[in-house]
From TrEMBL:
UniProt protein name: Response regulator
Modified-residue entries (4-aspartylphosphate), positions: D60
Residues covered by the Response regulatory domain: 10-128
SMART domains assigned: REC
Signal peptide feature range: none
Keywords: Phosphoprotein
Keyword Phosphoprotein part of the UniProt annotation: yes
The keyword Phosphoprotein is assigned to this record: yes
PROSITE patterns (alphabetical): RESPONSE_REGULATORY
Length: 148
């Protein structure tokens, strides 16, 4: 893997499966991503989001009592930062209809479990790349007016 240095990313991972959290933690360790909050449910994630705004959120689809899609829908409905933060959904449900449902719910990307370091790295790089383009587009917005 070469290209982007992702070590400065601030990431939130939400999954109620401790084994999956360990796998993601191992992958992030290999990528030198250390600014990660690992949470086991949406309720804790909402509380953490009041304190900090991660660059990327990774959530599982199948969680209780609030699943990853409902978490995403609720977050997106808040607007502002919450409507823009990239959200990657981890799932074993990779059927076309399910993936489309996830995208329509507001997730930025869907990754099939089990996730590999190579795939996660490529998706994170793509998100960072898109975010960089979006930020530069905002800087050159023709509607921007400097009022001094």
């Amino acid at each position: 893997m070469s290209g982007y240095d992702l070590s400065a990313l601030n990431v939130m991972v939400i999954d109620d499966n401790v084994h999956m959290l360990r796998i993601v933690k191992t992958i992030f360790h290999a990528m030198a991503i250390t600014r990660v909050r690992y949470l086991s449910n949406a309720k804790d994630a909402y509380a953490e989001l009041r304190r900090a705004q991660p660059d990327i959120i990774i959530t599982d689809w199948e969680m209780k009592p609030v699943n990853g899609l409902e978490f995403t829908r609720q977050l997106r409905s808040k607007g502002g930062y919450y409507s823009r933060v990239p959200i990657i959904l981890l799932t074993g449900h990779t059927e076309y209809e399910r993936v489309m449902e996830a995208i329509q719910s507001g997730v930025s990307d869907v990754l099939a479990k089990p996730v590999s370091i190579e795939i996660l790295y490529r998706r994170l790089c793509r998100i960072v790349d898109i975010s960089a383009v979006s930020a530069s587009d905002d800087d050159n917005d023709d509607e921007y007016v400097d009022i001094g």
